[in-house]
């Protein structure tokens, strides 16, 4: 029996894609008074936006490519975003070990310039050049909250303990951590609170111009029901699928293209005891990070490899695992092996195709193009990085503005996301307050809740006097009350949504516990979201 098709009211914007760019644009547009509908074919942040290195950073290595505008914008954004989401983002210190024998990628503008004026260096970087880059990194963005760079004697500093003895000097600088997939969900929630309609598990089948409107046919992947939405403007923020959407569902001619680059990460057992991160430079010119992760683990990544088809699942291959282990072992005193790996993940970054010779060299900047030939306009979003998502959304609104009369100008800077309405330095006070109000919480549990939900943690715990009042215990402090919140407020529909995107508790639950959660999600959880 064919699916019943219904038609929906006309909206201003129809956004395709529930990653960080799509949800960021939906939030900004809704806050300016536009009516917005967003469709995501899977879960929010299902692909690229849950598979990043989890950093709000300026991109120190992009200085090698003279991408000063991108770096400056990202550096400014670090502190803007930190103030808006102090629960899911926080400052971290990065240690960059230095050794005179280090060589860098040979085809960057910096390498080519250095090869001309200092050919005897043969690809090596003098210490003064590293320090100059870090000086620019400290000052390009008008840093106010984060501490600046300092030189570290690795022979005396705790950061030197886990490293090979040949590394005696390092530079320590600041960047920020972010819970990437939670960032996406909170943007979607805020967009919805401002009037947007957020549809997950909803595939766009076809979009066609009907005069001054777009007619967008969608299918609910859970029920098979089909609907037609009409909108004055279409926003293609499909991430890795932006190109396929252009040539398929939307069928718009454009010269712009997307370059898909796979970035893979490994998570190992904890490799060192302190709370700082490492920035490692390889003999092949690439860099990787080693970052304390979820208290008991270390995150190592990332790789850069071309990934031709977005429909092919992104997986961290055995070769990439070996590469990351070898890379890290070059720096750590003890070898990192595949036996240390507890989890891997991989995402596909949809970079703007600038014709670069390698995946590593491809620009991380974004490009926004409006096509209005033939009727209603469509905005296509190419590239971008998680640090600049809010600025990308503002830039998108500049492209959208000529077609609408909006109620307000730029507004998102400094406006907190759900749960982020507390001071940047207020996390410990929030944790202590939670422990006082709910004595059954231990420090680790309270910290996890605050780092995920901020001031909304109290709404989840409600009037509970004991842990038992929170309902079923799924393991690793995940309770029925918390899962119900994720279903009712944060669009979660499966155990994977809960364990790998709304949290990383998948690292801690057993297979049996995860299966029990999935049973609950498909029973009680399905009833809760209707």
From TrEMBL:
Residues 12-389 form the FAD dependent oxidoreductase domain. It catalyses: a quinone + sn-glycerol 3-phosphate = dihydroxyacetone phosphate + a quinol. It is an enzyme of class 1 (oxidoreductase). Keywords: FAD, Flavoprotein, Oxidoreductase. InterPro entries: DAO_C, DAO_C_sf, FAD-dep_OxRdtase, FAD/NAD-bd_sf, G3P_DH_FAD-dep. The keyword Flavoprotein applies. Belongs to the FAD-dependent glycerol-3-phosphate dehydrogenase family. This is Glycerol-3-phosphate dehydrogenase. It comes from Limimaricola hongkongensis DSM 17492. The lineage of its organism: Bacteria, Pseudomonadati, Pseudomonadota, Alphaproteobacteria, Rhodobacterales.
């Amino acid at each position: 029996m064919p699916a019943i098709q219904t038609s929906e009211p006309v909206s201003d914007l129809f956004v395709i894609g529930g990653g960080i760019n799509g949800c960021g644009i939906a939030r900004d547009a809704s806050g300016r008074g536009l009516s917005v509908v967003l469709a995501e074919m899977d879960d929010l942040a299902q692909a690229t936006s849950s598979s990043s290195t989890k950093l709000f950073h300026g991109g120190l290595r992009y200085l090698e490519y003279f991408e000063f505008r991108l770096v400056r914008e990202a550096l400014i954004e670090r502190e803007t975003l930190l103030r808006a989401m102090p629960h899911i983002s926080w400052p971290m210190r990065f240690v960059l070990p230095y050794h005179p024998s280090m060589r860098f990628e040979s085809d960057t503008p910096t390498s080519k310039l250095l090869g001309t004026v200092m050919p005897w260096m043969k690809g090596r970087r003098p210490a003064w050049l590293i320090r100059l880059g870090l000086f620019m990194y400290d000052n390009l963005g008008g840093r106010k909250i984060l501490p600046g760079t300092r030189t570290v004697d690795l022979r005396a500093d705790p950061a030197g303990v886990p490293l090979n003895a040949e590394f005696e000097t390092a530079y320590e600088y600041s960047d920020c951590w972010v819970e990437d997939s939670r960032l996406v969900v909170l943007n979607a929630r805020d967009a919805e609170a401002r009037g947007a309609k957020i549809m997950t598990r909803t595939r766009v089948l076809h979009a066609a111009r009907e005069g001054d409107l777009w007619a967008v046919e969608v299918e609910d992947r859970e029920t098979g029901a089909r609907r037609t939405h009409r909108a004055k403007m279409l926003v293609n923020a499909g991430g890795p699928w932006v190109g396929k959407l252009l040539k398929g569902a939307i069928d718009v001619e454009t010269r712009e293209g997307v370059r898909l680059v796979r970035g893979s990460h490994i998570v190992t057992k904890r490799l060192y005891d302190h709370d700082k991160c490492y920035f490692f430079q390889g003999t092949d010119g690439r860099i990787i990070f080693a970052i304390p992760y979820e208290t008991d683990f270390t995150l190592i990544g990332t790789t850069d490899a071309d990934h031709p088809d977005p429909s092919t699942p992104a997986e961290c291959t055995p070769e990439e695992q070996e590469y990351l282990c070898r890379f890290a072992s070059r720096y750590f005193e003890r070898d990192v092996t595949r036996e240390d790996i507890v989890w891997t993940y991989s995402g596909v970054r949809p970079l703007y195709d600038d014709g670069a010779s390698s995946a590593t060299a491809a620009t991380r900047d974004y490009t926004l193009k409006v096509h209005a030939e033939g009727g209603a306009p469509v905005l296509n979003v190419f590239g971008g990085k998680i640090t600049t998502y809010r600025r990308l959304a503002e830039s998108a609104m500049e492209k959208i503005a000529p077609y609408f009369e909006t109620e307000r100008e730029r507004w998102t800077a400094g406006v907190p996301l759900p749960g982020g309405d507390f001071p940047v330095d207020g996390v410990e006070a929030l944790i202590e307050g939670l422990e006082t109000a709910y004595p059954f919480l231990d420090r680790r549990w309270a910290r996890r809740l605050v780092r995920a939900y901020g001031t909304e943690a109290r709404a989840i715990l409600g009037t509970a006097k004991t842990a038992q009042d929170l309902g079923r215990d799924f393991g690793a402090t995940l309770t029925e009350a918390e899962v119900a919140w994720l279903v009712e407020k944060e669009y979660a529909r499966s155990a994977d949504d809960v364990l790998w995107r709304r949290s990383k508790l998948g690292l801690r639950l057993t297979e049996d516990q995860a299966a029990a959660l999935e049973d609950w999600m498909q029973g009680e959880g399905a009833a809760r979201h209707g």
